[in-house]
Design brief:
The protein is mainly beta and about 725 residues long. It has four domains: about 1-220, Jelly Rolls (Sandwich); about 230-330, Immunoglobulin-like (Sandwich); about 335-630, Alpha-Beta Barrel (TIM Barrel); about 645-714, Sandwich (Immunoglobulin-like), CATH 2.60.40.
Length: about 725
């Protein structure tokens, strides 16, 4: 939630990161073309790094002839001054770059710092910049931020994951201006999450930018959205679009404004256009709706074909172009069938998903574009087609990556574990949901809005019902969902579709219990359709065992890699065979910081990831899913890190999607394996004392693939 100080009417401000809020317009051979954020979005820190801000110089260096006024954006990344409030008495300041978190080092410690920190930055504003409207834009600050400029209170934002921005035009002057941002990640009763199995890192952990916009502009003041909303109805031969553009009119004595909307295909061909005009009559804010039809549309079809169109919007006064903005959209339809599962563009589409947290070692939440790309690369490598972005809104940069890569996205708010029955908490959650939806409305990858995760205490049905109503009002075209871990909770009946978090083989029972659990949930949900939103087990890659050992304790110090793989093999088999389940999401793609944990000989970590915290080691379970999901050939010898062997006879397991597979140990063929789908096991393979060469060979499509490792028998 974001509020501005009175008497000046300041508003929420953020242009959606799906498109860069700075757009240029120039004349090309085939007409006006917009340059938008997606051309360089994945390297936002390379757009412009300046101190002091010198936008006028930047604009003067553009090599294209400008047809309309420019939207100008500069990232404020370098040379911020920072101080923790606990250092206030000593007045100890350090210089940092933003994005930044003060928990980069202590985020895995149970006593990590949760309190206040102060950031300062010097804005240098030229006389030319004063002719524009000036905004400050924060992509996120955890989890409460108060913004001051030249000692005046500009505004406050509550919530650690959504973007916010304030107009600072009334507060700046030509020359140097002192920006001060007081950020807090201390626990407060009316700010979610109140509970949660993850570290709440503090700081300005996503980019900050300065926006210069014309007096009349496509507004960045509507719940931190782009100001452009593309709704769609997609049929077999046509897609009908309704494009709403919200305009903030700061011009005087203007009688009429118009908005032109063009739709371009991936090749840059104009496929639809419409223009709407309105009399301003002194109105400060106006909504323009353009309706367009795209004939025989190319569909956004998941990993197979993530086709994107570009919606280009021009705000005009007569023939004069005042402002422009682009949005990339994908045209698709989807629904959930209680018996057939998820349906994408009229065809069954089994969701093979993973969960993702956004933190990294020594960085916390202050991660880079390269980090986002590496995460996406690993998720693509495993063969997943969907991502649950747990348990909060993620960076717009990552949503855009999902659009481009065809990843279906489950997006959710940070309502985790516990809710309060207070008007202030309820309003905060409704605002956070509204921000999430409006800021990400045009991302084709998002198919559902999640209302909560694992609320297991108190009567929260009323709150969830209110949130469900907000979602349907804001976006009737997407589904609502929640992730439950307790059966027959009253709020489970509220959303459009349901999902459950369950951990057979880890927190309870055996992995084989997944089948009966799924069937029971399905009976309870009736015609909603269900998914498994979390399942899995912990694994320390340096902990190993062979067969015949006692099931490890979830809260114990010993988390063998082999048991994690076994849990996933059995639980996923049940999910895969349940045709009514519309999808599943492995918990988790990556190990992540959870300061309260002390287990698996990894204090401060949740070790259920398929990949290590530093993204360097793929666990055996990673290769199991890769052999199930990926179209690329896979041959992987399991337990390869268990080098020191004590038993002369051992089972050897290989994950593969090859048509045939052979195993050789010390050059000797081990015969035919027991095979169940992608799992091949050779029983009681003999090892010699000393070093043993283990080799697996697969054949697929006439080509050979192999994997090798060394084991030493003592």
């Amino acid at each position: 939630m974001c509020t501005a100080r009175q008497p000046l009417p300041l508003y929420l401000c953020l242009a959606q990161r799906d498109v860069h809020p700075m757009a240029f317009t120039w004349k090309a051979a085939d007409g006006p073309v917009g340059v938008d954020s997606q051309l360089n979005l994945l390297e936002p820190m390379n757009v412009l790094k300046v101190r002091p801000v010198a936008l006028a110089m930047f604009c003067a260096c553009l090599s294209v002839p400008v047809a309309g006024q420019l939207r100008q954006q500069s990232f404020l990344s370098e040379k911020w001054d920072f101080r923790l409030d606990r250092d206030e008495a000593e007045d100890v300041w350090e210089q940092v770059d933003v994005p930044h978190t003060w928990n980069a080092k202590d985020g895995t410690s149970p006593d990590y710092y949760r309190g206040d920190g102060t950031y300062r930055y010097t804005l240098s504003i030229s006389p030319a910049m004063m002719k524009k409207r000036i905004f400050l834009r924060f992509e996120a600050a955890s989890q409460k931020a108060e913004v001051k400029l030249n000692g005046q209170e500009v505004g406050e934002h509550v919530g650690g994951f959504n973007a916010f921005c304030f107009e600072i035009t009334p507060y700046v002057h030509s020359g140097e201006n002192l920006l001060e941002v007081i950020v807090s990640n201390r626990k407060e009763l009316n700010i979610a999450p109140l509970e949660g199995d993850f570290t709440v890192f503090g700081g300005i952990y996503r980019p900050v930018s300065l926006l210069l916009l014309p007096k009349a502009c496509i507004t960045p003041l509507d719940y931190a959205s782009s100001g452009v909303y593309v709704s769609q109805q997609v049929g077999e031969r046509r897609a009908d679009l309704s494009v709403v553009t919200k305009v903030d009119n700061g011009l005087k004595r203007v009688k009429e404004l118009s908005v032109k909307t063009d739709v371009f295909d991936a090749a840059g061909k104009l496929v639809a256009t419409a223009t709407t005009s309105q009399a301003t009559e002194g109105q400060a804010r106006l909504d323009f709706t353009n309706r367009l039809t795209v004939d025989n549309p190319m569909l956004w079809d998941g990993r197979k074909s993530p086709y994107l169109y570009r919606v280009f919007v021009e705000l005009k006064r007569g023939k004069e172009v005042l402002d422009t903005l682009s949005q990339y959209v994908g045209l698709r339809s989807f629904r959930v069938d209680a018996e057939k599962g998820f349906i994408l563009n009229g065809k069954p589409y089994k969701i093979k998903g993973v969960n993702r947290h956004q933190d990294r070692p020594d960085k916390g939440w202050a991660i880079s574009s390269a980090d986002h790309r590496e995460d996406m690369s690993l998720i693509k490598e495993i063969g997943a087609n969907s991502i649950r972005l747990a348990h909060y809104p993620h960076s717009d940069e990552f949503y855009t990556l999902c659009d481009r890569e065809g990843m279906l996205v489950w997006a959710e708010i940070p309502l985790v574990g516990k809710a309060l029955d207070t008007p202030e908490f309820t309003e905060n959650m409704k605002t956070e949901l509204t921000e999430l939806i409006r800021q990400n409305f045009n991302h084709p990858s998002i198919f559902c809005w999640s209302l909560c995760n694992e609320l297991s205490k108190g009567d929260v049905k009323g709150l969830i019902s209110e949130l469900n109503d907000v979602s349907h009002r804001e976006d009737p075209g997407r589904l609502t969902v929640l992730a439950a871990n307790v059966e027959k909770r009253p709020e489970n009946s509220v959303p459009d579709i349901m999902a459950f978090n369950t951990y057979p083989g880890w927190y309870w029972a055996e992995p084989s219990e997944m089948k009966s659990t799924l069937e029971r949930w399905n009976r309870q949900c009736g015609n909603k359709g269900i998914a498994v939103s979390e399942y899995g087990a912990g694994a320390n890659v340096w902990h190993h065992w062979q067969t015949g050992k006692k099931t490890p304790k979830a809260d114990g110090v010993f988390h063998p890699e082999e048991w994690q793989a076994t849990v996933h093999e059995q639980t996923y088999d049940a999910i895969k065979r349940s045709g009514f389940a519309w999808g599943s999401f492995v918990w988790n793609m990556f190990d992540f910081a959870s300061a309260s944990r002390n287990e698996g000989d990894m204090p401060g970590m949740n070790d259920k990831g398929l990949v290590s915290y530093d993204r360097k080691i793929r666990k055996d379970a990673f290769y199991f899913y890769q052999s199930e999901w990926s179209e690329e050939p896979v041959v992987h010898i399991a337990s390869r890190r268990d080098v020191a062997r004590r038993d002369s006879l051992t089972d050897v397991k290989v994950y593969t999607n090859c048509e045939t597979v052979r195993l050789k140990v010390n050059g000797k063929d081990c015969g035919s394996p027991e095979r169940n789908g992608s799992i091949c096991i050779w029983r009681k393979v003999g090892l010699k004392h000393g070093e043993n060469q283990v080799e697996a060979f697969g054949q697929r499509g006439g080509q050979g693939f192999s994997d090798r490792c060394k084991w030493v028998l003592f």
